């Protein structure tokens, strides 16, 4: 699986490069006269050049990520069949081909991003409001592919917009696919949304040009009946206008200002009293919330240290799982990859990063879990969740670790993110945007050890860029005599 990590997506560029080399060798050896193949190679080469020049942006941008995966799965399969190369089984330096799951994953990411950041189909680059070094858009066929996939997955209203974009771009028919086929599919999506009158109008347009079109003929019969009942039921199910956003979504968009009455109680200061070393190198602390307790430390981890963490984590990245109903599973609401590093045992050069957390939190590292490094992929996110365990009555929290529940979370931001990717707390109206070198710290439990539901939080979808974080979860055992008041003069 590639789409859940920008780090992995990057490998696909290498894979495509090796395929292009293959093709070039084929052309040189056998097919000097094959102009069409040469043209295709040159076009693919052009795209690849763009991809290599801007690799991280290219693989994290939902449109170009889709183009890359689609090229490998569609264009290269066709070329493979022509030149006698089994592209599905192809691998280069252990980099395997992407699969249909990657295509679905990227398409779902597109829908998520489109809704959240209000992006018109195919206008990603324009709508996110930053100038990209490349200008890539999807063609008619690709828009159609996305629309069809979205409809099959039940995202009807989004699929309608992609069908419309496909029709808008349609300039020639493809083998086995005409403009009328697309309109008939659009009619299906409109009907699913109970937009019968529009669907009927389009069906009549098809029948005007192709009176025998069998799909349109059968659609017409269904739609005539449906429009009659539509008039009676007064257009129910219609969704128009701008979407409504929840608190979570507004925070992701950076669209909520905190009230002045709260802001005036929050300060930034140098923290230099917790240990003598801090006299020389104080921590740069920004208060985010007093209750629940939450702070951000700035410039708390150096670029050098970040490089070391990423190097250790890269070979160990796996799809991130979620623990629910007593087992770990893959879910759509957490699309990222992670690696667990046992710093005490194996990654001892990273010890200062963990040790520093004792200064940042006042909590002893005796009950820390392993360090978890996370990398998000195309539209990668982690929906609202709690970090603490909610064991059944009489059961222990995190029994395999045996250190009690997660009393607190520290999360280092190991990269900047170009657009999106905030960490948001909907119940307290707080959103923190990643900044390379910062860290966020909050308590998950009340002082008596019960869970604090106000700590509900989420990682918003990454719109553009590569998001890396490192989580240090701190458990209860050994912290009995530590107290958050020591950290916050306001408490
Ligand atoms: O990446 C983020 O911003 C939050 C991640 C998180 O909440 C988690 O991994 O538990
Ligand atoms: Fe979390």
The helix fraction, in percent, is 40-55%
Please state the CA-atom Rg, rounded to the nearest Å. Answer: 26 Å
Cofactors, ions and other ligands in the entry: 2-oxoglutaric acid, fe (ii) ion
What spatial form do the alpha-carbon principal axes imply? Answer: globular
Q: How are the strands of the biggest sheet laid out side by side?
A: 3-4-5-16-12-19-10-9-6
Count of distinct strands: 19
Question: What amount of the residues lies in strands?
Answer: 15-25%
Structural class: alpha+beta
Mean pLDDT: 88
Low-confidence stretches: 236-240
Distance between the termini: 47 Å
Number of discrete helical segments: 15
- Biggest β-sheet strands, sense, barrel: 9 strands, antiparallel
Function: Catalyzes the post-translational formation of 4-hydroxyproline in -Xaa-Pro-Gly- sequences in collagens and other proteins.
Subcellular location: Endoplasmic reticulum lumen
Domain Fe2OG dioxygenase: 367-476
Keywords: Coiled coil, Dioxygenase, Endoplasmic reticulum, Glycoprotein, Iron, Metal-binding, Oxidoreductase, Signal, Vitamin C
Give an overview in words.
It is a single chain. With 491 residues, the chain is of the alpha+beta class. Helix content is 41%, strand content 17%. It contains 15 helices and 19 strands. A 9-stranded antiparallel β-sheet has the order 3-4-5-16-12-19-10-9-6, covered by helices on one side. Strands 11-17-14-15 form a 4-stranded antiparallel β-sheet. A hairpin with a 4-residue loop joins β4 and β5 (294-298). α1 (6-29) runs antiparallel to α2 and α1 (6-29) runs parallel beside α4 (62-83). The protein is globular. The two termini are 47 Å apart. The relative contact order is 0.11. Mean pLDDT is 88; it is low at 236-240. Fe (ii) ion is lined by residues 385, 387, 457.
């Amino acid at each position: 699986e590639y789409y859940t990590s920008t780090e992995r997506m990057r490998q696909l560029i290498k894979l495509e490069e090796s395929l292009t080399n293959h093709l070039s060798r084929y052309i040189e050896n056998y097919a000097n006269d094959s102009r069409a193949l040469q043209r295709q190679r040159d076009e693919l080469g052009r795209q690849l050049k763009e991809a290599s020049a801007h690799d991280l942006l290219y693989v994290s941008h939902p449109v170009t990520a889709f183009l890359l995966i689609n090229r490998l799965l569609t264009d290269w399969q066709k070329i493979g069949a022509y030149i006698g190369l089994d592209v599905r089984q192809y691998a280069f330096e252990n980099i395997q081909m992407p699969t249909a799951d990657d295509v679905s994953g990227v398409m779902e990411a597109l829908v998520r991003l489109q809704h959240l950041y209000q992006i018109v189909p195919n206008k990603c680059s324009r709508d996110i409001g930053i100038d990209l070094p490349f200008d890539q858009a999807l063609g008619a066929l690709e828009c159609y592919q996305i629309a069809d996939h979205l409809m099959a997955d039940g995202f009807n209203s989004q699929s309608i917009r992609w069908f419309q974009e496909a029709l808008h771009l349609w300039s020639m028919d493809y083998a086995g696919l005409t403009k009328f086929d697309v309109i008939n599919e659009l009619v299906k999506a409109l009907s699913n949304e109970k937009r019968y009158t529009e669907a009927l109008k389009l069906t009549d347009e098809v029948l005007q040009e192709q009176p025998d079109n069998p799909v349109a003929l059968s659609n017409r019969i269904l739609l005539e009946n449906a429009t009659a009942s539509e008039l009676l039921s007064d257009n129910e199910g219609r969704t128009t206008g701008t979407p409504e956003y929840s608190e979570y979504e507004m925070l992701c968009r950076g669209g909520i200002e905190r009230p002045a009455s709260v802001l005036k109680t929050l300060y930034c200061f140098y923290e230099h009293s917790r240990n003598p070393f801090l006299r020389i190198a104080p921590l740069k602390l920004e208060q985010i919330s007093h209750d629940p307790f939450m702070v951000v430390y700035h410039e708390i981890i150096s670029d050098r240290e970040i490089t070391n963490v990423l190097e250790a984590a890269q070979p160990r990245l796996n799809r991130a799982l979620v623990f629910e109903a007593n087992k770990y599973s893959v879910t759509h609401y957490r699309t990222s990859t992670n690696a667990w590093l046992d710093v005490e045992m194996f990654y001892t050069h990273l010890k200062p990063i963990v040790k520093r957390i004792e200064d940042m939190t006042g909590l002893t590292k005796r009950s820390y879990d392993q360090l978890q490094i996370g990398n998000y992929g195309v539209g990668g996110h982690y929906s609202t969740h709690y970090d603490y365990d909610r064991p059944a009555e009489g059961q222990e929290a995190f029994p395999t670790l045996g250190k009690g529940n997660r009393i607190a979370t520290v999360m280092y931001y190991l990269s900047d993110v170009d657009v999106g990717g905030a960490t948001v707390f909907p119940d307290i109206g707080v959103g923190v945007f990643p900044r390379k070198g910062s860290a966020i710290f909050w308590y998950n439990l009340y002082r008596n050890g019960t869970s604090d539901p106000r700590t509900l939080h989420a990682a918003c979808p990454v719109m553009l860029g590569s998001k890396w974080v490192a989580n240090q979860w701190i458990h209860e055992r050994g912290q009995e005599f530590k107290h958050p008041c020591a950290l916050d003069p306001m408490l």
